[in-house]
Amino acid sequence: MAEPSTTSPPPPPPSTKSWADQAEEETNPSSTSAAEPSTPSLDELAIDDNNNPHKLLDDPDDSNIQAVTSGDTPYTSAATFEDLSLSPELLKGLYVEMKFQKPSKIQAISLPMILNPPHRDLIAQAHNGSGKTTCFVLGMLSRVDPNLQAPQALCICPTRELAIQNVEVLRKMGKYTGISSECAVPMDSRDSTPISKRAPIMAQVVIGTPGTIKKWMTYKKLGVTRLKILVFDEADQMLAEDGFKDDSLRIMKEIEKFNSNCQVLLFSATFNDTVKNFVTRIVEKKEHNKLFVKKEDLSLDAVKQYKVRCPDELAKIEVIRSYIFEIGENVGQTIIFVRTRNSAKMLHKALVDLGYEVTSIQGALEHEERDKIVKEFKDGLTQVLISTDVLARGFDQQQVNLVINYDLPLKYAAEYIRGRDPEPDFEVYLHRVGRAGRFGRKGAVFNLLCDERDEKLMSKIENHFGTHVKEVREKSVEDYKAALKEAGLLV
Ligand code: ADP
Ligand code: MG
């Protein structure tokens, strides 16, 4: 088993960024709330949910979002998409292509701030699955001048999977606008043209990962003089010391050099205190707006969390196979998260040897292989996907009802400090949980624990989010059934 334990020597820290194959954020164990901004009441921004006759889903409840606006611009929450003065082409995209009926809370609150002059910068935190993509995609599509063939909107994401997903959403939502887009992610096909030989980018919206975007900018193929809007999805990871802070800051500076009016949007479900303070400093220079959620309010009620105590690692595989897969057979798609690439390989082989059709994704795979595995899962051709944390954030597949934490996410640095208890990565945990229960759907998460270290990690997670994670007994069919029933996945 490749997973490091407290007694075996720790593996060497990885030398390069591994696209979220490991936890990538800082922690601030003290979690003081001293940095909480002063928070005017959101009542005037609240939207009335009671007049929605088609309440098939629980609304993703972002009612605890705290807004801090600067200056005296009054913003009114948008109860309908019409309230946002969107173009008819965009409205058609929302209703016909996306099949949306009305804005979610974060959309209702943030879109007026994004779309209306003076187009202030925005830091926006809202729950996983609450529809943040639509906020910035509509922002980009609305602010682009369709008659100007030059990059006007840029969105930077931590993984290729998320960049591709966001481009797909933008193309679908913007189908009737004629706005052009390009995905800036590395390709390993032998026939792909090297950037030095490519024509300059003409696409009006560019969405990609920081490495490729930086490269395109260095080669002067991606001009920034016409940029009106710069978006960071999963912004806390993009600006974390052990995430993509250097790249992100360099890109921001380069844009600022030519273009000081570019609106910056920072979106994520998580902003730990360290990142929050840093991010606030970045936008501080200009008047900006902020939307934050308290960490105790971040766990999704719609996704039920459970823990299973297993005597050893082998028992974890047995729990997955004989209990979770058996009892949860028809509950939808499942993602099993593992911490290391080796665990992904090992678990994949073990489940395939037992006759299960599973696929697995991790950062060491060829790019196109990664794309194929994700596509098969999104198309519903595969039911179970094993993943390292490459898919912990942002990945949106509504049919995912079950998440299994084969192991709990650890803070990177802490793992390598001898004699110190490893710290859980709270943010990655929350993002993993958030792969189920998209937009108010139901979901369940099983955390598999097998030693004292896991117990400690789990209780730290429970304390951090102020939630109680119920135990499901390892071999109790009734317990698994009860858990899935409680989660609304079994009748
Ligand atoms: P987040 O980035 O906040 O985690 P996403 O933007 O990925 O969430 O949205 C989650 C899901 O909710 C997506 O499948 C999206 O299509 C859906 N969704 C977003 N906004 C709406 C809406 N207004 N009405 C219905 N579904 C929506
Ligand atoms: Mg997202």
Automatic annotation (TrEMBL):
One of its GO terms (molecular function) is RNA binding. PROSITE patterns: HELICASE_ATP_BIND_1, HELICASE_CTER, Q_MOTIF. Residues 1-63 are annotated as: Disordered. Its EC number is 3.6.4.13. Keywords: ATP-binding, Helicase, Hydrolase, Nucleotide-binding, RNA-binding. Residues 319-481 form the Helicase C-terminal domain. Coiled coil: none annotated. It comes from the Eukaryota. InterPro entries: DEAD/DEAH_box_helicase_dom, Helicase_ATP-bd, Helicase_C-like, P-loop_NTPase, RNA_helicase_DEAD_Q_motif. Pfam families: DEAD, Helicase_C. Residues 113-289 form the Helicase ATP-binding domain. This is RNA helicase. It comes from Cicer arietinum. The gene is LOC101515139.
